[in-house]
UniProtKB/TrEMBL annotation:
Function of the molecule: Growth factor that supports the survival of sympathetic neurons in culture. May regulate the development and maintenance of the CNS. Involved in the development of the neural crest. Might control the size of non-neuronal cell population such as haemopoietic cells. Acts by binding to its coreceptor, GFRA2, leading to autophosphorylation and activation of the RET receptor. Heparan sulfate-binding is required for signaling.
Keywords (A to Z) from UniProt: Disulfide bond, Growth factor, Secreted, Signal
Predominant subcellular localization, coarse grouping: secreted
Annotated protein name in UniProt: Neurturin
InterPro entries the UniProt entry points to: Cystine-knot_cytokine, GDNF_fam, TGF-b_C
Source organism: Junco hyemalis
Length: 245
């Protein structure tokens, strides 16, 4: 039912055929599962409604035998009469669900596929190689490695106004900072301090139970002119050497 519109939409980008087809197959499986659940539920409800009610006990054994024979004949005839109606009911439900899927989800699938193709095109243009809906498992490993980088010196070119020191100037400076983790610098002091905090031996003091990546030495002073042609000098602005303290 969805093969023809899916194949028509896949001609937009040949490089994304397999990735978009994977998503279309998943969507078709979900829709088929929903349809099966709805049909089975309606069939169960219909069979429960069509099940005969238990007959009340008769006053005498003679009348029970005659009533049982008459009820068996009537139930057999009623079952013969109700079976076609039950089949017609389930057939009409299938027709309704099929009509609903054909009239509603086909257009939605077209919009979805066009949106996926557009997102893939944006990802390719921005340097990505994978759809956002199907991220690579290597991305998690890269983020984990980034969180465990050693303490090192980095630099960034920013304007003086972006430093947050209250100066207004369009001049740019090279801001050097320290970044990274200090897992290898953990000492017995840090482990003992962490244990004391977990045991609530130390509560109110604001302490750090692990070493931090901080500047060990600072770079030379930085001088600049602000927007009003006033001359300023800032000391200890950029880091010169980093370490775990």
């Amino acid at each position: 039912m969805f093969v023809l519109p899916v194949l028509q939409s896949f001609n937009v980008l040949t490089c994304s055929k397999m990735k978009v087809w994977k998503f279309a197959a998943i969507a078709s499986m979900l829709l088929s599962s929903m349809l099966s659940i709805l049909v089975c539920r309606d069939m169960f409800n219909g069979s429960r409604e069509l099940s005969p009610l238990p007959s009340s006990p008769s006053s005498s054994r003679d009348s029970s035998s005659s009533s049982s024979s008459s009820s068996s004949s009537s139930s057999s005839s009623s079952s013969l009469r109700r079976s076609p109606r039950a089949l017609q009911r389930h057939g009409s439900l299938l027709a309704q669900y099929s009509a609903l899927l054909e009239s509603y989800t086909e257009g939605e699938m077209r919009q979805l596929l066009s949106a996926l193709v557009e997102r893939y095109r944006q990802a390719v243009n921005s340097g990505g190689h994978e759809l956002p809906l199907f991220p690579r498992a290597g991305g998690r490993r890269k983020r984990a490695r980034a969180r465990h980088k050693p303490c090192e010196l980095r630099e960034l070119e920013v304007s003086v106004s972006e430093l947050g020191l209250g100066y207004e100037s369009d001049e740019t400076v090279l801001f050097r900072y320290c970044s990274g983790t200090c897992e290898a610098a953990v000492r017995s002091y840090d482990l003992s301090l962490k244990s004391m905090r977990s045991r609530r031996k130390i509560r109110k003091e604001k302490i750090r139970a692990r070493p931090c990546c901080r500047p060990l030495a600072y770079d030379d002073d930085v001088s600049f002119l602000d927007t009003y042609n006033r001359y300023y000098t800032v000391n200890e602005l950029s880091a010169k050497e980093c370490g775990c303290v």
